[in-house]
Amino acid sequence: MPQFGEPEPGRIHRDRPAAFGIAERDGLIALVRVRPAGGGDWLDLPGGALDPGEDEIQALVREFGEETGLAVMAGRRITGFGQYFALSSGEPVNNVGGVYVAQVTDEDGGLKIEADHELVWLDPCEAVRRLRHDGHAWAVARWMRDKG
What we know:
Blueprint: E1 3-4, E2 14-22, E3 24-25, E4 28-34, E5 42-44, E6 47-49, H1 56-68, E7 70-86, E8 92-107, E9 117-122, H2 124-130, H3 134-147
Parallel strand pairs: 1-7, 2-8
Antiparallel strand pairs: 2-6, 3-4, 4-5, 4-9, 7-8
Helix pairs in contact: 2-3
């Protein structure tokens, strides 16, 4: 499994199991623009950490809804990767998990609970250039190659 990012010297990055999804509509893919209260503005794939007792697919479905208001069904697993980074709290982690094809089944604003996340639809090539995490960009590029 590929590893992206660099660990911060002298800090321990705990493994943080996570899952992300790529949902396509009219040639565009769903991303989240994240604007935390403490500052920042970046693009991520929808998804995130597994809650206790969840598997990757359960986390993907929950996180997608919480971040975008979209209900999704998980399809095939595209790839897995690790990504060193720091959470908005400053805690260093290594997100480790899978990226799945996600099929949008419904739009339900009641699912969305993360106020600092906004759904955006972007061309996949532009997404590869603009995604915050190298692991996310790599997964989108791999998804595009697999599509043909």
